[in-house]
Amino acid sequence: MHEHAVVIVGAGPTGLMLAGELALAEVDVAVLERRPGQDLVGARAGGLHARTIEVLDQRGLADRFLSRGATAQVAGYAGVPLDISDFPTRHPYGLALWQNHIERLLADRAGELGVPVHYGHDVTGAVQDGAGVDVDLSDGRRWRGQYVVGCDGGRSRVRKTAGIAFPGWDATTSSLLAEAETDEEPEWGIHQDALGKHAFRRTEGGQVGIMVTERHVGPGREPTLRELRDALVAVYGTDYGVHSPTWLTRFTDTTRQAASYREGRVLLAGDAAHVHAPDGGQGLNTGVQDAVNLGWKLAQVLRRTSPEHLLDTYHAERHPVAARVLRHTMAQVALRRPDERLRAVGGTVAELLGMEEPRRRFAAMMSGLDIRYDLVPGHPLLGRRMPDLDLRTADGPLRVFGLLHEARPVLLELAGQAPDGVDVRPWADRVRRVHAECAGPWELPALGTVPAPTAVLIRPDGHVAWVGEGTRSGLEEALTTWCGPPAGARGEAAGTVAPEPRPLCRRMVPED
């Protein structure tokens, strides 16, 4: 039996991002993937929103992705473009980059960090006990982890065998996506009719990319070439002699969310935790940000610096984020229905989004730049993403995001503030303390300028956990909550975690 601190099921963008986050904390993690290899057939999802690019920038990875794609204004709502070029971020744009490239770059990163990704491993279930989780494979083999994270998609075996409910709404519309050959020249571009939207495009490999809305909701299985031909004939009167598809899939507006993102030692992220229509391009981005929220928390619990209940904050913070995504994708699906009354509503929405204040609010939401976790009341920075400010330090100029490359908490103290009130030395092994000067305004998308604090505690995911406004009030509590109890009290807190832990870092793992 293979044993690891964490077993991740699924090597899509969410699973690979999570593997990298855990490896940064030197956690022994392995990834199991059903596909026979890393290659992803077809382009699938495409595009990263601004906040996801920022998340990659926090780890020093953004340039890898930016060099492979094209920056563009990708945010939109129900077909209405939303320009974020005037937003206070180093990345006031999205990135057009297909999922196969995104996965390859994340797999490269995982490999650099020594994470073993085992392809051809079809997981059939996960059963937990008081000390860990057994993961069963279709060939009879078994793996074991102290924790298991299901990143295995909307039909997640991990979620099902953990008994986590997946309530929501069934599909009301479906479309086929394919890359194939055609004998006849198709009608290139996007077309709209009484059924919905349809499109043809030329792919990177020279094939024809096809999207066609079906007349009736398709069955919950992989579609056939015959179904693709029938759908094309229903819309265009011809199937253009379509043949030899390299991939063919069906997407719907099925909308579901896991009732809980955690059941004991089993956690869910990405599509295993939430599925919805692709309108707005939120799915992949939400999953990657799930991984960044979960990774450092799980690492701290495994390293026994934080009690296990820190993992409860993962559900508390990320479930509402995805719930909002689900609400707005359902709204966008409704607004694109071929119904004259809904067209009238869509026209009204488009008119509203042309106004400055609605544009800024919806653009911040769709780009992910307005996410705020409900921590404690107070300064408007609390729970929000930390701006990537330019800092002047004794070691020279730095960017805030540059302080987060190692995924450690940062206590940023601005010049002129005496370090009195709380002794932070008991957290010195976990928190990077930086004294700096900062010139210029503190701005947040949609909110605008906020009062400049005297100090901030930044979590590894880049969200602000504490704000100092001339005093250290609340700092000790914030450090204990997000970084674990002070060094002298860690034994008591660690008692709530698993018994004697296995090694957290195992760089060399034998292949099967």
Briefly say what this structure is.
The chain has 512 residues and is α+β, with helices and mostly antiparallel strands. It has 12 helices and 29 strands. A hairpin with a 3-residue loop joins strand 26 (442-444) and strand 27 (448-450).
Q: What are the key terms here?
A:
12 helices; six-stranded mixed sheet; eight-stranded mixed sheet; alpha+beta; single chain; disordered C terminus; 512 residues
Verbal overview:
One of its GO terms (molecular function) is monooxygenase activity. This is FAD-dependent monooxygenase. InterPro entries: FAD-bd, FAD/NAD-bd_sf, RIFMO-like. Pfam families: FAD_binding_3, Rng_hyd_C. By secondary structure, this protein is α+β, with helices and mostly antiparallel strands. It contains 12 helices and 29 strands. Strands 1, 2, 8, 9, 10, 11, 19 and 20 form an 8-stranded mixed sheet that branches. Helix 1 packs parallel to helix 4. The longest helix has 24 residues, at 312-335. The chain is globular and about 75 Å long. It starts with a strand and ends in an 18-residue tail after the last helix. 45% of the residues are buried.
- State the helical fraction: 25-40%
Number of helices: 12
- For the secondary structure, the number of strands is 29
| Mean pLDDT value | 91
Strand content: 25-35%
Which stretches of 5+ consecutive residues score pLDDT under 50? 492-512
Q: What is the 3D form?
A: globular
Radius of gyration: 24 Å
What is the terminal-to-terminal distance? Answer: 11 Å
Largest sheet: 8 strands, mixed
Structural class by helix and strand composition: alpha+beta
